[in-house]
Amino acid sequence: MGMRALRGSLIASVAMLPCLAQAQQGGTQAVTLGELDVVATSPIGGIAAGRGTGDPAAAGRQVASRLPFTVETVNAAEIAQDRATLDPTFTLARRTAGVNLSDGQGNSFRQTLTYRGFDASPLQGAPQGLAVYQNGVRINEAFGDVVNWDLIPQVAINRIDVVTGNPIFGLNALGGAVNIEMKNGFTWQGKEVTVFGGSDGRIAGTLQYGEQIGPWSFYFAGEGLRDRGWRYQSPSEIGRVYADLGYRTLDSEFHIVASGAKTFFGAAAAAPVDFTRTDERAIFTYPQSISTEMGQIQVNGKVNISPTWDLAGNAYVRRFSQFVIDGNDAEFENCSRQSSFRGSLCFEDDGFFPAAGQSQLAFRNQFLMQGRNTPRIPFTPGVPYGTLDTVRTEATGYGGTLQATNRDRIFDHTNTFIVGGSIDVADYGFKSQSTLGIINPDLSVTTNPNNPTYGFVPGVGTTQLRTAAALGIAPSSVIGSNLYMGLYALDTFDVTDALSITAGARLNFARISTTDLTGFSPDVNGTHYFNRINPVAGVTYRFFPWMTLYGGYSESNRAPTPLELACANPQRPCLLPNSLVADPPLEQVVGRTYEAGFRGTVPNVYEDGIVNYKLGFFRTDLSNDILQLAVPGNAARGYFVNVPATQRQGIEVQAEYAMPGLSVYANYALIDATFQFTGTLSSPNNPLANPDGSIDIRPGNKLPLIPEHQFKVGFDYAITPIWRFGANLAAFSSSYYRGDESNLNRKLPAYYTVNLNSSVQITDNAQIFLLVTNLFNNRYANFGTFLEREANFANRFVLNDPRTTTLVQPLSVYGGLRYTW
Asked: With helix as H, strand as E and coil as C, how does 350-377 read?
């Protein structure tokens, strides 16, 4: 259980004094002592409620000490310390054991959050192993289950719970679920305006307003940010709004919630090591911009239908739109001497093999480029050709959850029973196309102004036309729909005052349909079904008031995403993430998790402080895990494949001391993430790959980008009644590059980072604050992969080192003013 989640009544009042005092400087945080000791055990339980709706453990919340799994929590006050980042993952990463970030896109707002070796990532194609909920609504996007952290308004977050070993959270909860509870007018009252700025030209501001008038409440939050980014061509623009209208009586509470976001990021990709050695701000070809818009409306409600029964539910509509522009190198050249098209431009793909049933002799591996009205495009010697690839993803989702909670005593023993069901439906569209361009000396990719749009078709033959589409050169246009349904039940029974038993299960059903609109890939058309019942069982036993044993077993599953299902054939790889092609079906991923340990709270430790601690073990075995692999001949093309088995296991050690005016924490996580099968995987860009572009996998090989050792320590101290100061350090061991699943190459080096925060309450209403990130300006990379090995590609850009990485943001300093009234 997370450290703050363990606090109970009187103990919690001592431990939370520093945090509550800080929170109240920015408005009234209406928190009861009882609420500090309960956590969400279902998505509905993560919806913030005001006081007055009965037992705080109602509607999917339970007393933390009775649960056989782990809940790690960060609260609004801790998030407020990092307000200048406008990024909730920053707080989770610096504070939570087992969390690390990897920056595959060179922008701190779009990093992959990894918890115990499982990802919640904004990258299309990343294996999504965490379910993420905001106010009870699953926000893994419909098309690829991606999580866009940049769309979540940081200032409006009330708390974040990271929950493990609980399949009640549905699909993708292989490594757990992230439950984000937002503020409303019953839980936060006041007016607050914050303006700040700093490094890289960052200018930003937030505002929030909360008020309760009789049975009604209203809350509004807005955020805006703009900076030029610390790398070249890498600006960030963020706009986010959130509003909540609430109404409650003695036995009911209802909320209408609206939220929206619009973001833009440039240069979202890693850079070759040869470039960053010369200039740390270097990028590769550009533009590489991502524009995203989101709007969501939801209705939440809770009703006490009897003294022991509560009914809760939500319904929502969510609209998502994203447009990506990506400038890339491409394999264009003079058509071969054997071709009658000599002197014209051809696309060559020598590393691509014909699909099953095609004749090798008939397969030319070269495709004539023709313009809009089918004229041949002349080849110009010395011109570095490239492409501007565009991707547009649209999705409209809607659905809801209904849940009942009962707290009747059974044989005079306390019992909490939760039963519910959910349905999530989404319609999506996916379009991509490539436009012929040239790579300029500054590495920008531009199109020919006289021929702004070129078609991509093969030289001759219908067989080659199909192959060209399979290569991902032809435009793609796919529509589809997802239907996810779930039924679940969870019961916690107190056998004695010390012993509690939990058992439950969830039935997951998924239907995924896709339809090709271009005619290039008719085999994309299809409907896939997945279903599974996932059980959970566990016990907790309190040996002493300050020590509890917990242990549990659970199962979970992840259905393949539409992207993965439509790109699973190595004979017909995709230009990822730009095209979809025909596929053989993938199997769903199944996880089996074991967890056990000790945790507790020791009161009256030095100056009436308390110590929270935990020592735990976890292990998750996955069957049919899904990986993204590259194909020989082009780094941009790839496909998805099931592998027999992977495993994540480890230990977590945590301790926190808290007293009025001071809190200190330290935690360590060992995460052993490994493959558990013998076989080969395609990784043609790996410098030590076999001649055919494959790498050999053996049981015990480490999964890439997951540091085995993770250590975090920090403190927050009130130096005077008006001046607070805090610092934190996070250190991570080395990890392997993506594409080095065979573990033969040198690793990404170990690294550490130190951050500082401070605030001074200059008047009752005004506070100035400071945030310093990466204090010692450590120039490390937390993401790395390999460049394409094709000789012309490397020679064109004078690339000798096969590695490409993303360096983290350098030393950055932000300061601002917060005014409340």
From this structure: CCCCCCCCCCCCCCCCEEEEECCCCCEC
pLDDT tens string 324-360: 988 887 777 788 765 677 888 777 654 444 444 444 4
734 forms beta bridges with none
**How many CB atoms sit inside 10 A of residue 335's CB?**
23
Residue 279 phi/psi, 5° resolution?
-150, 115
Report the percentage of the chain scoring pLDDT > 70.
82
User: Could you tell me where the beta strands, DSSP code E, fall in 545-678?
Assistant: 547-558, 574-575, 589-605, 609-631, 634-659, 662-675
C-alpha 703/C-alpha 647 separation (Å) is 9
- C-alpha 112/C-alpha 738 separation (Å) is 13
Instruction: Find the angle CA(152)-CA(322)-CA(585) to the nearest 5 degrees.
Output: 105
Give the list of residues 6+ apart from residue 400 with CB closer than 8 angstroms, or none: 313, 314, 315, 316, 422, 423
Find all residues with CB under 8 Å of 496, minimum gap 6, and list them. Answer: none
The 3-state DSSP class for residue 453 equals coil
Tokens representing 803? 């590695």
pLDDT digits (tens, 9 = 90+) for 627-654: 988 766 555 567 788 999 999 999 999 9
Binning the chain into helix, strand and coil, the percentages to the nearest 5 are: 10, 55, 35
3-class SS string, 290-333: EEEEEEEEEEEEEEECCCCEEEEEEEEEEEEEEEEEEEEECCEE
Distance (Å, whole) CA 732 – CA 467: 45
pTM, two decimals, is: 0.90
Show the low-confidence residues of the chain (pLDDT under 70).
1-37, 46-60, 337-339, 348-367, 370-374, 448-475, 520-521, 523, 566, 568-584, 631-637, 789-797
Q: Give the pairing of strands 345-348 and 366-370.
A: antiparallel
SS (H, E, C) 232-245: CCCCEEEEEEEEEE
At 156, phi and psi to the nearest 5?
A: -90, 5
Average pLDDT of the chain is: 84
- CA-to-CA dists, residue 473 to 163, 247, 382, 650, angstroms: 42, 54, 23, 44
